[in-house]
Amino acid sequence: FNNRSATVFWSIVSIAALATLPSYDFRSYWYAGESATDAICDDHHGYQVEFVSQQPLLIHIQNFVSPSEAAYFTSILAQNYTHKLYVDEEDVKKKVAPRLAVLNQHDDFVKCILNRAQRFLGSMGSPDFELLSLARYSVPHQVRLHSDASQEPFMDSKTKRRYNRKTSFFVYIHASDDLEGGETIFPRIPYPLDMGLTANSGIVSIQNTSGVPALAVKPVSRSAVFWVGVKKDGTVDFDTIHEGLPLTKGEKIGMNIWAKHYID
């Protein structure tokens, strides 16, 4: 987005009426230039956002990445990328959770995604992001209930500044046609009563452990979910705790995008 678009975007967020769950079409535009990155960034494919929850703020984004970007990130998982353990080391050892492939931050496609995320954030943006990573989820991978934001701030190893994950993007780079399971559930966010007003097939209702219909996001290729996980007072919004439900068939490829929101 340009500055004007960012202003309009967040104005819409602040006045969005969940009773009607409106959808808006946005197109992001790359700044004029002649670099290799400009040539490969497909920022004119357009994406659609839908406000699913106002408090906490949660937005579903259809077509966040282009077909060419999705194909590229899917292909590089077969290459020799650096891997690190995911949320719980024991889960990885038991093959319950996947490993992450850490991406080269100088890669042109990575720069495209970070630039798009930065523009989406607008005035909520940050100059720095954590390393982008990909994970291939297959049966029976899952991710346990957790919060992306932390009660104890993270430390930037380079700047020595403290930061938190105020905002989160989870991008479904690819979901196989035979996929079953693998939804991202937010058990503390109620499923919107009037979701019937939308044709968005990416938002579904799944009962939480209390038997209450909770909001869940279905893996749909090239889509993403965005949320704000830190309150205005700087504390973690535990209503955004979430988990990746087990896959029972097929596979999905996910990408985490975390901006470094500095505290000091």
UniProtKB/TrEMBL annotation:
Domain Prolyl 4-hydroxylase alpha subunit: 56-260
Signal peptide: 1-20
GO CC terms of this entry: endoplasmic reticulum
Keyword Metal-binding set for record: yes
InterPro entries: P4HA-like, Pro_4_hyd_alph, Pro_4_hyd_alph_FE2OG_OXY
Keyword Metal-binding on entry: yes
Keywords: Dioxygenase, Iron, Metal-binding, Oxidoreductase, Signal
Any GO MF annotation of the entry: L-ascorbic acid binding
Named cofactor requirement(s): L-ascorbate
A Pfam family matched in the record: 2OG-FeII_Oxy_3
Protein's name according to its UniProt entry: Prolyl 4-hydroxylase alpha subunit domain-containing protein
